[in-house]
């Protein structure tokens, strides 16, 4: 009676990995032809010390060169696919053999495997690039990104520290003069933030254009249209909350990017950059929504930015109606950006966990 060992499998786009549960295997004979793999060896398996063998008819052809490594506990086999691709199953038969099971220690779905390939390729590219760089050499692109992030970090740090100090010194009174004390620096930082959209659009940094555009345009709309154009909004406490939440996020984001310019990382800062936005970003959008709601009656009364209609109709559309539509778009933008940021966080920490293992 033929004895078969337990076999665990996993795949990548170019390779098949098999782990044969056979202790102290000897006289190993493993070979492949077309899409069939034959294995035979002596060792201690599920049925004790015996000779074990199995045959697998793969879904597609494989290369005849098969590599294996025997350890005290198992035999690890690597089979290369004839054509690169992702198999929906391992064998031609839809019903897998009883001795075959997934190797969850090495198992990845197709998207994770593609990410692994990209990470390996990026690592190879970084190593290749580092060999051709002179020590201390900083590219123009790296220098530009570092200076930009440094300027933004200093600007938002000044805003955050200034507002915090004023809050402790003047208490509740500081909520009412935030616009007059902070707005100049905030105008500068938010105008400069338009560079981030250009960086994404021209490939200077690898990030999505749409999420960046939503954030930059959304903030500048609140800053210039809602706060800047209405003097009645200058003394509202909501200005304080909007500015404070914006700066609280950015004082972690920009130094993270600064270190990234030189492939350097501080784990605490990385965790903060990918975590503090979870409560602060929705709160910031909520504060922006409150500001829009408070400005609607002001726009309605003053008719500022009203859209004129033809004389035959003899009226105009109040800008307040536009703000009602904008409120809906704000929360749509919140969903898009929150999803984008969550994917970034998941990818970052999943990669870190995998490297640690």
Task: Please describe the structure with a list of short key phrases separated by commas or semicolons.
357 residues, alpha+beta, five-stranded mixed beta sheet, three-stranded antiparallel beta sheet, elongated, HSP20-like_chaperone, fatty acid biosynthesis, coiled coil, CS_dom, very-long-chain (3R)-3-hydroxyacyl-CoA dehydratase activity
Could you walk me through the main structural features you see in this protein, from its secondary elements to its overall organization?
- This protein has helices at 110-132, 140-170, 178-192, 194-201, 209-228, 237-260, 267-273, 277-302, 319-356; strands at 6-11, 15-21, 23-33, 36-45, 48-57, 62-70, 75-81, 100-102, 307-308, 316-317.
- With 357 residues, it is of the alpha+beta class.
- The chain has a five-stranded mixed sheet with strand order 6-7-2-1-8, with no helix packed on it. It has a three-stranded antiparallel sheet with strand order 3-4-5, with no helix packed on it. The chain has a two-stranded antiparallel sheet with strand order 9-10.
- Helix 2 packs antiparallel against helix 3 (178-192), helix 3 runs antiparallel to helix 5 and helix 5 (209-228) packs across helix 9 (319-356).
- The longest helix is centred in the C-terminal third of the chain and has 38 residues, at 319-356.
- The protein is elongated and about 95 Å long.
- The two termini are 40 Å apart.
- The model has no long low-confidence stretch (mean pLDDT 89).
What would the average pLDDT be, to the nearest integer? 89
Helix count, per DSSP? Answer: 9
**Major β-sheet annotation:** 5 strands, mixed
Shape: elongated
Alpha-beta content class: alpha+beta
Sequence of strands across the biggest β-sheet: 6-7-2-1-8
Strand content: 15-25%
What is the terminal-to-terminal distance? Answer: 40 Å
Beta-strand segment tally: 10
Helix content: 40-55%
SSE order, as H and E? Answer: EEEEEEEEHHHHHHHHEEH
Q: How much is the radius of gyration in Å?
A: 30 Å
Question: Segments where pLDDT lies below 50 for 5+ residues?
Answer: none
GO molecular function: very-long-chain (3R)-3-hydroxyacyl-CoA dehydratase activity
EC number: 4.2.1.134
GO biological process, one term: sphingolipid biosynthetic process
Membrane topology: Multi-pass membrane protein
